[in-house]
Amino acid sequence: MKIIVTSLFVDDQDKALEFYSKTLRFVKKHDIPMGEFRWITLVSPDDPDGTELLLEPNQHPAAKEYQQKIFSEGIPATMFGVADIQAEYKRLRELGVKFTMEPTTMGEMTLAIFDDTCGNLIQIAQQ
User: Fold this and answer.
1) Closest listed residue to residue 11, CA positions, set 61, 53, 59
2) Measuring CA to CA, which of 17, 32, 79, 109 is 20 to 30 A from 55?
3) Domain 5-126 sits in CATH 3.40.50.970
4) Phi, psi of 11 (to 5 degrees)
5) What is the pLDDT of residues 64-93, one digit of tens each?
6) Would you kindly state where each structural domain of the chain is located, as residue ranges?
7) pTM of the model
8) Which DSSP letter does residue 51 get?
């Protein structure tokens, strides 16, 4: 068994697609109409057949409440690995991404947290 898709609640699918593809450089794999919303998944350009990130609309009240509560508590919704966190931090800052935590070393990892503009805090990590 392996993880093939993981979901991330977003408050606006179009805005999320733009942020995750243009700013974070993920590659759109699927964009399929599903009634009022779409099945939008992205993958890492380094692993096009790897785990897909689903940009899931937060329209269900429980999803919206969950997303808002973890955001307000400063809890990242997910974590992405990066090879050079300092370079990625600098690149994203230059693009206007707002960080709530600058790169910080904790044990064998260095972590940073930013706002994805779609209702989530995202953690990046370098091992």
Assistant:
1) 59
2) 109
3) no
4) -90, -10
5) 999 999 999 999 999 999 999 999 999 999
6) 5-126
7) 0.95
8) -
